[in-house]
Design a protein that fits this description.
- It contains ten helices and nine strands.
- Helix 1 packs antiparallel against helix 2 and helix 2 packs across helix 3.
- It has 288 residues and is of the alpha+beta class.
- 23% of the residues are buried.
- The radius of gyration is 23 Å and the shape is elongated.
- The longest helix is centred in the first third of the chain and has 19 residues.
Amino acid sequence: MLERLNQAMEHIERHLDQRIEVAELARIAVTSEYHFRRLFSALAGVPLSEYIRRRRLTVAGAEVLAGQRTLLDVAVRYGYRSGEAFARAFRAVHGVGPGEARRGGAALQSQPRISFRLIVEGSSTMRYRVVEKGQFRVVGQKARVPLVHEGMNPAIVAFIRGIGAETLRRMEELSDQDPHGIVGVSDNIADTRGEGTELDYYHAVLTSAAAPEDMQSLTVPAGMWAVFESSGEFPQALQYLWRDVFTQWFPSNPYRSRPGPEILRTRLSEDASEADAELWIPVERTSA
């Protein structure tokens, strides 16, 4: 898998001055576009589109300083339709405009090329199982919230605190399948997984029942799920679990992620400093 990802990275480098199709990158990596975007983001720590933009502007910066092409020629070569659009993008990455950089020989920022390699640690074991699950409903309260990579998510905390105890009790009565009890469900997550991008968050239960009038419902089709278990400091252990699933488990197993919600069942210690968790990720087997 890592060899194929590196082949996709090489394709990006050879086509920085052309249109780069994610479908072609996914084909080279022998996976789906959906999974390629998510895997790249988890491994590289930056969304795919942002990496390509930074690499283009890194190479464009070198050409600006070289002075062999006009600024407009450089702009057009790297996909910008006007000098103004190029100047805005250039300044956002390098901190100076292209004209100023050329005149003053400014120091520019550089996005290094990314390549992937396997680091064998073996210090911990990831507990998981793969299950087939029939169609079900997510029923509960829903909010649109920003994605937070580290620490508590203030928007989710405030949202949950605003749900009344009676509503929570009625929710729990609807739970009739694994994972049982109230869970956190994330849906409509941006492929980039960028900090601050928005997602639909459900504080809800999984059920076969219809939703009451005062609750929202999400119907989830039948499919395969990978279920990961984790215990540790809250919320860091849960956030690291998602990272480890994409950076360690997927590259080592014959599965890829598929579109669908992610389900997190959390049980906190009395002082809320530790948590036991199950993370449900929709998956499908790869052909390779």
